[in-house]
Structures are given as structure tokens and as C-alpha cells.
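[Solved] Which block belongs to which protein?

Original post:
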Amino acid sequence: MLNAELSGYYHDEARYPAAMVNVTNHCNLSCRHCFIFRDGNPNQAPLSIRDEMSDDVMLMTLEKLRDRHGIKSMMWMGGEPMLRHKLLKKGIQLFESNTITTNGTIPLIDFGPDLLYVISLDGPEDLNDSIRGEGVFRKVMKNLEALPVDFQSPFQVQCVVTRSNQSRLEELVLRLVDSSVRWMTFTFLVPAADGETNPDAWHNNKEREEAVRIVMALKEKYPGFVRNSTRSLELMFSPYAERVTAACPSRANILPLYLEGDHFTTPYCCYGNDVDCERCGAWAVFQIAAKMERNGAVSW
């Protein structure tokens, strides 16, 4: 039995090189820009994490989806996926490539050199903690600094760029560049489709371009540390950005699996059911777009 109700852009016969899976709807933080917990997304958590889909059923379902769609790469998400670290230990054996996206407040486990941790920090300490909670920045850094020298799983920090933190991104880079953190990536806030006008969201892509230029300057200044490709950032300028999002490359390349009760479901996109696609700033979308262009598959 396949514990999944798949619809939307999903196709039974499609090949998906990658997938992302929310393994739990429980989280120990409440970040103000978290897209998982927007209204309308499958994100209800039972009182106990033990009442979510069991490890065995989840792993069986993921294995069947892997075989059906040829999934090579899996991104493990939540909630906070490290709350189900025993599941992760088994799950990463199913796929050739694995990434765990975590808030970093729970100590990392060495799963070997073939797994990448992506740790979320959204600015220097005061800004990060205004978004993620008091004391979070120091707790994350303490966990990273406590890792043994022979820790094999590489890890990087990913920062969500917003109107609120765009002018202080280099402060975060300077804090991390000489630490044990190997790389940084920047992804840009993906706003909801309801036209939200909160302080974190740009009104349009033209207004966002200043933030993109800031990240491009950081890429030029710290080329070995900032992993965003220059071309992926260039594609975030108009009119390229609108062309990329209109033909969203993630739909054909990434299968999103959200946890809903005792089964998986496919939301509208990787960012859920309430997304303003035209203002999308997702790292994965523009990285895939740049790779497609480089391989001659498309010209934006």
C-alpha cells in the first residue's frame, strides 16, 4: 500500500530526479517566515510525534516512490527533521544523495560524508533571533563549534533573504566565514499568494533587485564560501525571473511530499499551497534554471 494521495502537478509516469519530504509536522521553533506552517498547508501535528506516520510505513512509501519515479536525491525536512533522527538514519540509505534541512538547535549526527546538512540562520544574532526565537543563534553556533574534528557530514548555512535583513547579510557572512561552516547559500523569501505586505516581503521583483545585487556582491567577495552561482542570481532580475517562474523548473524535477495525517500529499509546489509564484525566490528554482541553461536545455 502506498500511503500517499498525490495530485496537482504530480504525474504517475513522471521521472523525478529529486524529492523533498516533511518527515514530521512537529518543530521546536516557530519562525515567523516558515512556509510549512502557512494556513492551507498540510501541517497539523498530533499531540505526540509518536502518533505521526510510523517509521516503517514512511520508509516503505518512500522506497516505492523512489522505484516508481527514479528518485536519486532526497531532501529531508520538517517541522524539525532531527526530532526523528532514527528514521533519518534508515531513510538516507534509500537514496544516492541526501540533504537534511535543520534549524540546528538539535545536535547534528554524523551520518557520513555523503550527507549534507543545511542549517538555517537568517542574519546576525539580533536579527536571526527576532525571526527564530531568543537564544537560537547562540545555540546553533554552540552546536556547530562542539562538533568533533573528525565529523564527516559536511554542513552549510542557508539564509532566507528578506527586506528586513538584506542590508546586514555581510555581518552574517563575516561571523561564519572563519568558523567551522564550510559554505553559505542565500535563498529569497517566497511570499504567499494573498499579496502579503509584511515587512519581510518585497512588493515586486524590481524592488527585490537591490537584495539580489547585495548577494551578488557577496558572491564576488567570498566566491569560495557563497555557493549561489552568479548566473542563478542574474536570472532573478526581470524579465528573466518571470520567465523562470512561469515555467517553474522545480515542478518537473522535484517531487514535494508533505505529511498529512497518516499519509503524504503533494502540495501546489515545494513551498506549499499558498505561493506567489511570480515573486518566487527559491534557491532551488533558480539553481535548476541556471543549470538547464548551461546544459543548453533552455534559453531564458
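(Second protein starts here: sequence line, then its C-alpha cells.)
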Amino acid sequence: MRRTQLFLITFLLVACLACQPKRSTGYVEVPTVTPNALSGVYTMSPTSPTCRIYYEVAGQGDTLILLHGYGMDRRMWDKVFTPLSKQHHVIRYDLRGYGLSDMPEVGFGYLHADDLRALMDALSIQKAHLVGVSLGGKVVTEFVALYPSRVLSATISSGALSRIPDRQAAPAAAVKIYNDTVFAESRIKAQQNAQRGMVALKAEWKKGMKSISGKRYRHIKEDLETMIDDWQAWQWVNPETDPFIGDQADSLLAKQATHPPMLLLLGQFDYTENKKAMYRLSALCPEASIQLLPDAGHFTVMESPKAFMKHLQRLLERVGATRQNNVDRHNSPLQQEEKVN
């Protein structure tokens, strides 16, 4: 009897593992200085023309790319990565300066949104569903502004538009003065942080993360603090250039006649300024769907993974149904007759 039970348990474990989507990992090379960067001190060439971005991929179907938050890494998506990969080709990656990806090179401008485009190009992905939380939400927003034709849908949570002046139309001399001033201020701040020490900085950061989490903080505390402990915090002790286009995204989104299908997920206990940024985005993209996650704060996908996935799956199903209807309409006998005539 015992042998039979052991056999059944072993069989079930093997069957379960066989059903899991195969996962692969790798690196892609992205330009050290990216095309749309508006920041940077270009007194010399970067040490390397490229830097490496680490990614993980699993599953088949439409591509779904997951972008993590500030101070986090790809592990932020642990609770949903495998479930999502059962129906989709899912990619999660460490943004430049985080996790296993390369750190930025001091003084050279880049955009996280440009890095995302370079990742998609390297992996031969023309279009994708994009999902971002916090820092990742800002990256997705700017990607929609810069590369709308590459987006199947955008799910944005806990981060939207950043407040950085639009320098695109400014005179080159004015942009240089602004960039040099910001870079000098960043250098002073980095020196102050180095004097305070990483232990003190991270202890303070953990307290702040707890204050903007929801009712389930105790369930995510260990995972959250592990990522913070592992984070190199390069951004704190180095003068980082602005990796965003800021207010330029507002104007680009306002000029777009239509936007990709968009879902905005708000954690009830997230901080007020972040909610304001999300509502500002909803004003620019009035067709976007807005959902409140009542038990969550800033780390929505970690705090309320089931609710997060439920709303995301509804969006993906709606987009899939619309695309299928368009294909059916395109291939209908009436359409074929019109083509012939």
C-alpha cells in the first residue's frame, strides 16, 4: 500500500513538473546611450557602447512583458509569472541598474523605454502586452508615448507620469545648463548618501515601503526586504541621469489620436502623489479602464496577485477577442468580394 502511495505521489510530481512551462534565461545588449535620452554629460565616449539586460522567458502565445518597481527586480513577479506563462509568452527582466542587469555608466543618458524597445528588437518581438508596477509603470507609460505601434495593451500600476521638464523643443544651450545643474545636484546627493551608509539608507527605505503597503504587508515583507537587501542601490551612490522623458510623455500622449487598450490599477493605500499621477494619465487617455485594488498599497501585484491577475486577464481576453473579430471581418466573404472588385 505504501509503495502504491509513493508511486502515485511521484507520478503526480513528475506530471506536475511536465506541465510547467519551460523557462529560459539570457542577456541582450542595449546601447549605453539610447536614442531618445535627453539627459547626459557627453564629454567623452562611454567605456562600452552597450550594456547587458538580463531576462527570463516562459510559455507560448502573445508576448507579455513584465516590468518591476524601483529598488525591486524581476522577482517582484514571482506569484504571477508561472500562471501567466501557461497561456502567454511571458518575459520578465531586470531594468538597467537592477538585479542581474548591468549598472548604468555614470554621466551617459539613457531611457528605460528605449531599453525596452531594444530588448524587444533583440528578441524579435514586434508587439507585446506590457505590464508595469511603480518604476515599471512609468516605463510602460513612456513606451506607449514613444512607441505606440509596438503595444498590444498596457497595464500600469503604482506609477505613471514623472515630473521632469520637457526639453525636446528647448535650445541646446538651455538643455545643457539644465542637465549640468541636475547632474551636479545628483553628485552631491550621491556623496551624502555614501556618507550615511547603505545600511542606514536601506533601513529607512524599508520603513517607507511599509508605510505605503496595504493590509497584507506581513505577507510580502520577507520577499520585499530580500529584494531591497540584494539591490546594489547604484542609483543612491552615483549621480544618475534622468532615465525618463517626463513631461514630454504628456504632450506625446495628448497628440495621439488613439491609444492602445489600457488598464490602470490603483492600490488604495498607495501614496497620494502617485495616485495623482495615475489620474493625470487617465485624463490623457480617457478610454483607459481604472480599477481600485482595495487591499493593496504600492506593491499591487505582490499584495493582491489574484485580483491583479483577474483584471489583467480580462483586459487580455478583451484585446484577444477584438483582434480575432478584426481577423474574422477581414477574412469574411464580403471583404474578400470587395478585394476582388
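Accepted answer:
You had them paired correctly. Confirming on the second one: Residues 305-330 form the longest helix (26 residues).
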